[in-house]
């Protein structure tokens, strides 16, 4: 009987955790302007084993610790395209040109993704990014990097 109860508890916990992830993905896809928390959550979900179980605030903290973003960003602040490109290039480890390798600058990550066709040539680095576009950019970075980490 204890095994049966433990099994039911396990499945309920699994369902709740996957429902939380689905809710976060839905929230991201519905966003007209993706936030630092949402983009960091996407990055952590891709790069860490427990990424999809954390809050947006925890994801920003981990992203800052790993050097994907600078310290001091708040989870609810909107991220621009250049910063998003910098984060996703670092997470997926896309091979970039010499200037990016020297500086690790978001500017050169943006330029690399624009040059390799991930971004439209008319994309402005200061523009805000929608949820679906952020997911598409991350997906493209992972593919270009050969599967990600």
Structural description of this entry:
The chain is mainly alpha-helical and 149 residues long. It is 62% helix and 0% strand. The chain has seven helices and no strands. The chain has helices at residues 2-29, 36-47, 56-65, 81-92, 98-103, 106-115, 131-145. Helix 2 packs across helix 3, helix 2 runs parallel beside helix 4 and helix 4 (81-92) packs parallel to helix 7 (131-145).
Q: What value does the average pLDDT take? A: 82
Q: Rg, please? A: 17 Å
N-to-C span:
40 Å
Sheet with most strands: none
Helix content bin: 55-70%
Q: Flag low-confidence runs.
A: 1-19
Total number of beta strands: 0
Main structural class: mainly alpha
Instruction: Provide the succession of SSEs.
Output: HHHHHHH
Specify the number of helices.
7
Summarize the structure.
With 149 residues, the protein is mainly alpha-helical. 62% of the residues lie in helices and 0% in strands.
Features:
149 residues, mainly alpha, 7 helices, 0% strand, globular, disordered N terminus
Write the layout of secondary structure elements.
Layout: H1 2-29, H2 36-47, H3 56-65, H4 81-92, H5 98-103, H6 106-115, H7 131-145
């Amino acid at each position: 009987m204890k095994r049966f109860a433990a099994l039911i508890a396990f499945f309920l916990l699994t369902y709740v955790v996957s429902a939380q992830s689905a809710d976060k993905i839905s929230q991201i896809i519905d966003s007209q302007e993706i936030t630092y928390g949402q983009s960091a959550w996407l990055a952590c979900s891709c790069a860490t084993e427990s990424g999809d179980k954390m809050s947006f605030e925890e994801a920003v903290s981990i992203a800052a610790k790993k050097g994907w973003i600078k310290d001091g960003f708040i989870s609810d602040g909107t991220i621009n395209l250049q910063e998003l490109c910098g984060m996703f290039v670092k997470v997926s480890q896309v091979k970039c040109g010499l200037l990016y390798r020297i500086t690790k600058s978001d500017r050169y990550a943006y330029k690399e993704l624009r040059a390799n066709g991930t971004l439209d040539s008319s994309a402005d680095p200061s523009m805000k990014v929608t949820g679906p576009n952020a997911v598409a950019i991350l997906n493209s970075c992972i593919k270009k990097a050969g599967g990600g980490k």
